[in-house]
Amino acid sequence: MKMTDAATLTGARATDEGYLVANVRTARIGTQDYRGSELDRPDLDTVTVYRDESEVFRKASLQTFGLLPVTDDHPVDLVTADTARMVSVGTTNEEVLRDGEYLRIGIKLTDAATIRKVQDGKRELSVGYTSELVWGDGIAPDGTAYQARQTNIVGNHIAIVDAGRAGPLARIGDAEPITVAGWGASPITDEKDAIMADAIQTRTVTIDGLSVVTTDAGAQALEKLQGQITDAQTALAAKDGELAAKDAKIAEMAKATLSDADLDAKVAARADLIGQAKAIAKDVATAGLSDAAIRKAAVVAVLGDAAIAGKSEAYVDARFDILSEDAAKDDPVADAFNQAPAQVTSLGDAYAARDTALNDAWKPAIVKGA
User: Fold this and answer.
1) Single pTM value for the model
2) DSSP secondary structure string, 148-174?
């Protein structure tokens, strides 16, 4: 099926030889509306046709738009080697580039009469190409419903026309010979959505330190993608923080875990403490008590609660050490234990026995002195 797309000739300049060179955007991707009657579907008022970027920018398709003949208005039929010399007024460049949603093609006009028409205001371009329509309902990426897709797009020529979107150009061109003064099927447009090449606004956005020139829609898409990437990086950083905190906690727990040697030393120290407490007061309870509580219990057993009331833990520890040292010495306390085992049951009893022995030891001397 023969189709046309329109654009406006912009950025034209004359060469020293009098030729005219320019650049144009053509053949955009996306959806376009056509009259159903022009596409052999009289049962439909309009048909929305979708052109996927994989078709428009397919290498085999792109190559067909290079070195195309440029014509003054559309020829009646396809341009071929037999007709090119008669209808060609210039040619496209060999290089065909992607420009956002469009193809960008350079053209060179070599016919003086046509160049004068362009200088006088005939500046619209209509790309003539053939394609196949694959019928079937679908949804384009932008959410637009379509009834057919264009495939196998092959460029044929670019025509300079007075109005690329109106008049006889809005005709269907199918496999049968065209006998009317028009070429191909043109999309239905109006003033508000007729996007001309010189009206397309571009923006420069920075992505990962690189400057990218694109359309406004492309910039919005890139900025949205950049925002999603930033959000993902923020979430990843937060997750890394959580993992770091867990690693620190695990390291702290590992540090707090005793080695076998440390555990043996702790058990030995606990046994020594209990032995010291029992030496001070053999009936003192130690089960389930902390080290500080054991020291306090031993001191209270000997000296009573009043002796340590309101005192600090350091004071209690000092009294415990003194009592422990006394319990370990070979002194009258130990003798009292040995001399009166039946009466001595604790360190307190030993101190009482010692005092009695000392007092009794002085009595004979006092009598003799009298």
Assistant:
1) 0.47
2) EEEEEEEEEEEEEES-TTSGGGS--B-
